[in-house]
Amino acid sequence: MSEAESSAAGAAAGEAAAAAAVAPVTARETVYCGVCSLPPEYCEFGSTVKKCMDWLEKNNPSLHQKLYSSEALESKMGTMTLEAQQKAEKDLAKKQQKEELRQEREAAKKKASLVYIKRVERTKRKFVTVVAGIELFDLSVKTVAKDFGKKFACGSSVTKSAAGTEEITVQGDLSEEIWDELTEKYGIDEDNIKQIDESKKKSAS
Ligand SMILES: [Zn+2]
């Protein structure tokens, strides 16, 4: 190697080193993928990822290393897992909110629901007590009818209302006792129970 040649090589090496030194700064601003022309960070969203990777490996190994090294991919996987986690958490929160709303609606519905205890005079001095609306409080009409029969030692059966809904017909005038049973045993709020005296209504009109 001549003296001129070696100095030229040295200068070239110096230039290369200088270029390498500034490369990270300029590279970030000016590198566009030679295959899809996007900044290499976005190559993965195109349809030429494999070609893009090969191109980058040849033309900008350090950036290729930064984007596609197993470390980079691993941290990206971590990010994806976190995203998935966040999505799952979001879904769960949505579900919980939905469930809360459902329960609120249910509670509001219950609050607005009424159980009717009707005293009905069948014949003179002979009464039955009809209880309607039990099912609105998630109670089984059949079970409660049975309970009334046992509790009050009287005839108690499930009957159909004119509207086709199930009611409980208890033999005898047991309005007060049934009121107590509904509030104490079944926890129905007093505001949700309405007592109707049909025999009085009839005699009044
Ligand atoms: Zn590309």
Automatic annotation (TrEMBL):
Gene Ontology process terms (BP): formation of translation preinitiation complex; translation reinitiation
SUPFAM superfamilies: eIF1-like
Protein location: Cytoplasm
Keywords of the record: Cytoplasm, Ribonucleoprotein, Ribosomal protein
Occurrences of domain SUI1 (ranges): 115-186
Single annotated GO MF: mRNA binding
Major place of residence: cytoplasm
One GO CC term on file: ribosome
Top-level taxon in the UniProt lineage: Eukaryota
Pfam families hit by this protein: DENR_N, SUI1
Subunit architecture: Interacts with the 40S ribosomal subunit.
Family: Belongs to the DENR family.
Domain notes: The SUI1 domain may be involved in RNA binding.
Protein's UniProt name: Translation machinery-associated protein 22
Gene name of the encoded protein: TMA22
